[in-house]
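FIELD: query
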Amino acid sequence: MRKLMKFVACMLVPLFLFPSFRLAEAQGTIPGPSTHAQSAALIDVTSGRILYSKDGDKELRIASLTKIMTAIVAIEHGKLDDKVKVTSSAFAKEGSSLYLKLGEVMTLENMLYGLMLRSGNDAASAIAEHVGGSEEGFVLLMNKKAEQMGLTHSHFMNPHGLDADGHYSTANDLARLTAYALKNPVFKRIVATENKKAPNPNESWEYSWQNKNKMLRLYEGADGVKTGYTKKAFRCLVSSATRDGQQLAAVTLNDGDDWNDHARMLDFGFENFPLVEIAKKEQPVQNTDVVTGRGFIYPLAKSETSSLTKKLILLENRIQEGSEADAKPTDPSFGLAGRIDMQLDGKLVGSIPVYHKGSYIPPEPKTEDSTWGGIADVSSWAAAWRAVLSHLLSP
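FIELD: result
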């Protein structure tokens, strides 16, 4: 029998639904940090919320910040122990370089370290040719990834970021891309590395790369991400830092004082938008027989907390006669009662599932397993929620 679902009960959940949540003392706005950047953005990595933006959708040249996309596409499509060969088109690429020799072979993992720590353009081209079959093929993968992520103000013409017409992005798009990439444990490990040694097959000495990102040494808690510069893009920087379990990422484009500006931006985020625990996993929902299926945290200023509302959406006729026997105890639809939508000033910022008390609650998906597509992915359970709905609505 078909499993018919319909949303029949929508009600605002009082703010006292979750005792751990406190009302704000006052409403108000927070002046953003001053920067010298032509464009800038600050994002909370966990939630994907942009906390500050200065001309954040202005399309600009991005120099080697391009390599953030190069790295994540290579990690997702390649194998770290693959042997990457330096071809004639990758050899002696202009700009910053690892000075790889023609025909030299290096693992993809070590190439990625050279790409992100030393910004090697030769490594970028070698990686692109290996993973994409050609540099042009890899660029197609880069633009497909941008499209999938909803980065509507980004377009790539090459994997290294050398100036080219039609090659651009924005501070907001780069912030979202970085937040996505930092959820990948390989990417996260590489960009946080200050020094890396790699085998050199042609010499008696090893490669030794120091990360060009001085934020790793200048800012407490810094753990990424990428520097960039060309004569047309000027100084570009993406940095990240983690404090008290919260990770932020800052982006500046065309900024002559980027190290200091990034410190101010990160300080601003940590001081004004701490992560607030709004719900705990398996927390009873008042006046109902359901409990939360996972926790929910979100960066909020004190002046915003009273603007956060929660809407409980229950599912009726969840399983029709004859289909309960088909449900397995470990089926994520077993016991699913609905969801709670979190809204800030009327805009959806995340959702969590709710289950009938005593029913099976599936484990939370790993952060790196979550997908990215805007609001639906603000909380990392989104992929599981979509899978549940697909299961329940299927014949």
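FIELD: remark
The radius of gyration is 23 Å.
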